[in-house]
Design a protein that fits this description.
Strand content: 35-45%
CATH topology: Jelly Rolls
Number of strands: 15
Protein name: NADH:ubiquinone oxidoreductase intermediate-associated protein 30 domain-containing protein
CATH class: Mainly Beta
GO molecular function, one term: unfolded protein binding
Number of domains: 1
Keywords: Signal
Organism: Puccinia striiformis
Radius of gyration: 17 Å
Structural class: mainly beta
CATH superfamily: Galactose-binding lectin
Shape: globular
Helix content: under 10%
Order of helices and strands: EEEEEEEEEEEEEEE
Length: about 240
């Protein structure tokens, strides 16, 4: 990552919400790309919308390739968030349901393994549209949760900054924003509400679901949105 977009990580309230930063990845730090490379490309056919329509809302979203027919270059999560119909409780997400493991293949590993966080590399939002929705939610679910715990999802909110006038628009890698989401900061939520009594996210278990979401936070935000996501991985 380049230094053209110089932002410090800002801890918000609650503590599981972040303002991301553009920064260099440590070269000696192991990482794995889940989506966003030639061997691990995005597949929009495997993502499905989950939204407030199940409760009578009107929010909608799509997931499309940033560059048509180039699935490894990233996806755009875009749509409209309706906050009015359900009294400020609107939400819409795109969800990936194919199970996978975060740990390397081979003998079982005790402890969290070599990784401690998810990361998402996104485009900053255009400075010409400062009113666009800028707060999103990343969600993940462990595979072995059954019964009541089947509704348990671990989530983290993050805010995407506006592009700066100094951003080098001729070099996409120079202006990507990296959002780092430590496993320990993923908050267990049960049916949409924080549930601190539940067990924390366990990276040793199979991941059964990943989601990208936007929600109204009770009339804090609504309207059109888009988020260009280039890579999603663990480090």
């Amino acid at each position: 990552m380049g230094s053209s977009l110089s932002l410090l990580i800002t801890w918000l309230t609650p503590t599981y919400s972040y303002t991301p930063t553009a920064s260099h990845r440590q070269l000696d730090k192991p990482f794995v790309i889940i989506f966003g490379s030639v061997p691990r490309s995005w597949n929009i056919e495997e993502w499905k919308e989950v939204s407030d329509k199940i409760r009578g809302g009107k929010s909608s979203s799509t997931l499309r390739y940033i560059t048509p027919y180039h699935s490894s270059e990233g996806v755009s999560f875009e749509g409209t968030l309706d906050a009015a119909t359900l009294g400020g409780a609107g939400f819409v997400s795109q969800v990936y349901h194919t199970p996978f493991s975060l740990l390397p293949s081979g003998p079982p590993i005790s402890g969290p393994g070599p990784y401690s966080a998810f990361f998402i590399e996104v485009d900053p939002l255009p400075s010409t549209h400062p009113s666009l929705i800028n707060k999103f939610t990343f969600g993940v679910k462990n595979h072995n949760h059954q019964g009541d715990q089947s509704s348990l999802i671990y989530q983290c909110d993050f805010t995407v900054p506006l592009a700066t006038p100094q951003a080098d628009h001729n070099n996409k890698l120079q202006r990507l924003v990296k959002v780092r989401i430590p496993f320990k900061e993923l908050v267990p939520t049960f049916r949409g509400r924080p549930s601190p009594d539940h067990t924390p996210f366990d990276p040793a278990l199979t991941v059964s679901q990943i989601s990208l979401m936007v929600r109204s936070f009770f009339n804090v935000q609504s309207g059109n949105f888009f988020l260009n996501v280039h890579r999603l991985g663990v480090e």
